[in-house]
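A further point concerns the way the authors explain their paired sequence and structure data. Since the whole study asks how a given chain folds, the encoding of that fold should be made plain. A single example would do more here than another paragraph of explanation. An entry of this sort, consisting of the sequence and the corresponding backbone structure tokens, reads as follows:

_____
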Amino acid sequence: MSWAGGTAAVLAATAHTTSDDGPPVTLPRDPAREEAERELSKGVYHQDDPGLFERALRWLGEAVSDLFDRAASLAPGGHTGLWLLLGAVVLLLVLLVVRLGLPGRRPAATAQDTLFADGPRSASAHRTAAEEAAARGDWTRAVQEHTRALVRSLEERTLLDVRPGRTADEAAAEAGRVLPGHADRLRTAARDFDDVTYGGRTASENTYRRTAALDADLRRATPLLADATTASRGGWTSPGAAG
């Protein structure tokens, strides 16, 4: 039975009562309304009502539509302008992800985070590996190998102690104390190494060229030398400062 049919039946039943011997009797309004409510509360009239999930979806859709309409009323160009604005935001986010990679936190350094996880190799060997990677367009590998080359070169020149467990950040900090004129570039190189090795980003040719140029400059750079007094305090001085 439909709701409309039930309503008509209830109204007909509750509006009048009849008897064979007398005229129809009109029921009072309140009892008639109560009788109609009792009748309409029966499950037979609610079989086609939407379920809770459907009502929730309908409410959510109406809320989103109302929010969109309000935003469109404030955006230049109405709905069209709002869609263009949303498209521009999505495009910007995609470009940022492509350029910078997915965000993520890097955990504390472990044995797998070290510069030389593959074992000891000479600076020359790392440079050769970097050049080979660059020749085939593998800029990520090229950056990694040239970063290892410049740190190994500093170790070979005894400007850094040989420490197999050293990370790129630690190497940059230690080398920056010996070669303070290159401290900022060393930190940048360490960050580039971490980004492509642990951050899931892809190196560019420009990043490789920057790392290779730093390596070449470090090979020609004159380090600060520690004398007996400053070395005891962990400090450094230029060759002409002690005297």
Q: What stands out?
A: The CA atoms of residues 86 and 149 lie 46 Å apart. Strands lie at 16-17, 25-26. Confidence is low (pLDDT under 50) at residues 105-113, 227-243.
